[in-house]
Amino acid sequence: MVRLRAVKPVSVGWPFLAILLLVFLLAPSHALAQDTPTASDILVKLPRDLSPWGMFMAADMVVKAIMVGLAFASVLTWTIWFAKAVELMAARRRTRAAIATLGQAHSWRDAVAATKNDGDGIAEMVAAADAELQLSADALLPVGVKERIASRLERLEASAGRRMIRGTGILATIGATAPFVGLFGTVWGIMNSFIGISKQHTTNLAVVAPGIAEALLATALGLAAAIPAVVMYNMFSRWTATYRALHADAAAEILRIIGRDLDRGAFNQRPIDRRRPVAAAE
User: Fold this and answer.
1) From its phi and psi, is residue 275 left (phi > 0), alpha (psi between -120 and 50) or beta?
2) Every domain of the chain and the residues it spans
């Protein structure tokens, strides 16, 4: 009989196992080292200045144009606020003073004399009422005269409100459009970030950070222009409503003075400029 011998396993030497283990451990780290930039590379590629001015100078031309437009809108908003605030406060002060003067007038003649040199909206209302009294000199029925004068004063009141709110429509436009303009800059900046990722085939911070920073700056400028514009527009709307209410108070005071003089018959003694009818003149 042939006796079979058991085959002993071939023993691998320790040096060979050590080499395999070393290759296994070093191969992934070597490949990762080739794909991932070092810390020094990232520091070299990162922008040196991430301040608002530095981000503006490093931004794309489209984002720069958006930022300049939003900054101009913000300056325009504050300019309109200053100009209209001074105008409205001065007009309301003059109107209150004129109403106090009308309240102290004992007759229509005194009211005309007291407001003749004012040069504001109340003086214009007094002049319009006096013109209607002269035109109605031959038809001094109290009800009809008051209705005609009230119609004139109502139109002057509406005209004063329109004149005072003029220019504030720009604030409404800025408040409604500035956030969307800033959002467009945000979209453009993020798009530039993705373009940089695709060109450099990496997603490290040096590629993504500048575009994201520009996008956030455009959004911040849009909000900085829109929020004050909306607040100021609402404020001017309330102030203009108060200004129109003061004109309504002045109109009521004028009608009261005229009503008292109509009851006294004071206008019957006024000189009447009677003109010949056109048909008679021909």
Assistant:
1) beta
2) 50-270
